[in-house]
Amino acid sequence: MGEEKDPEYLSTLERGLRVLRAFDASRPDMALSDVASVTGLSPAVARRCLNTLVSLGYIRQDGRRFLLTPEVLAFGSAYLSSMNVESVAVPPLQALAEATGDSVSLAVRSGREILYVVHVPSNRRIRLGAGVGTRFPLHATSMGKVLLSYGAEAVIEEFLGHGPLARLTERTVTDPAALRARLTLVRERQYDSALDELDYGIVSVAVPVRDGQGQVVAAINCSTSTTRISQDELVRTRLPLLRDAAGRIEAELRRTPMLARSLAR
Known about the structure:
This protein is of the alpha+beta class.
């Protein structure tokens, strides 16, 4: 017998959001058949969702293809402004970026990925660009492993047992036993550092950010090119600065519990 559906759950809204999230850098524009395939919706349902979103101005139709419009940015802007994210997190991260010359970010967990909420870029070119809204796999990033390591045991088990972990480089940790051991180490030392795991030439170190109850709600990192600094030197020099920045953000979160609640899963 199947699970009883929540009578308050709007499946039509869920389908519309699924259509919006189907567009990304690899799929900037799609035909109806593409949208149906990516979302798992029938062509008829996908067409109704697309037509509605076109009418609302969030999607534009160009011949037989569809693409997002700038109107979708209103959702992200509303979150950043209503939660005062920039006044809480940006100043300490900006100061950290200026002190180190690294890219500095704050991310939260979103499913099996990290989601960038704040990003202060470096003025140096690195292989992998990032920005607010960027997503990367949990297991291939230092922030991801920090966030995953502080999850409940059942959450970690579900993640490890969900299926094969994507190998992005030769150094990506894809073996479940090895990843579990890594997560245990992260909790013990309260940071993670990744070298060439997400992409070659990138080294990073990340620490947790806690709310007023001590629960980990986010992670922050310093990330830079391996041509600038070794992994050992990055950890040695950035870890104290990261922990100081995390402490400053945590102090602000205690004064703005609404933001802390929004960041928490």
